[in-house]
Protein 1
Amino acid sequence: MRLCLPSARVGIRAGFNGLVVDPCIPGNWQGFEVRRQWRDATYNVTVKNPKGVQKGVKSIQLNGKPISGSVPPQPANSVNEIIVEMG
């Protein structure tokens, strides 16, 4: 099933220092994908929910590297991959 929702509805929003990724979803969702344009860069966000939780982030990767906290702004015109594991 595909849904069209504003990214803030599923916990992805612009913050002062970075892109905040804090998903809050129904426990029966296995995950979701969102494409977000922010500060002239593209962010492809994949959220995985292997334990069926509704909230909580276990890990975040930005372009294959682990990060903690908000996703920092990336260069203009870049395409970036964010993988979030809930848990």
Protein 2
Amino acid sequence: MARPSELPDFTALSSIERGATPDQIILRDQSAGLLVGVDATLFLREIDPTVIALTSSTALVSATHNHAIITNTGASSLNTHTLWAAVIGDEITFVRRVAQIIRVDPNGTNTIGDGAAGKYLELQNSGAIRLRSFATGTWDIVSASCVYEYEQP
């Protein structure tokens, strides 16, 4: 993730254009020319992600939730969310907003961070954890604002 000082200055944005394919967009700056060409779907998800409150005690989080923010707002008991099989580029964020614990369970033999294969990650207090897959079958923790623990093997 780029630091704010490394990001382009979008205040001088002169145009947003379609790319070579319908799923690409190009951002242009009057002085710098081409700033960035990005996948439009991912770009839009980053600036306006889907927020979903999952309150049931267990839920299967599918690839349709890719790039979503999952909260436990309204939950009345511990929530366990089982992820889909990790594929490079997949990302999801979990936010614990109420007292009930959130457990994030990887699919089958997938791993989360330094956890063992198939073992869950538990958000211990209020805050958020963002997971991203940089390798098939693994979820890496790219940011966390909460205390978390791994299920013991």
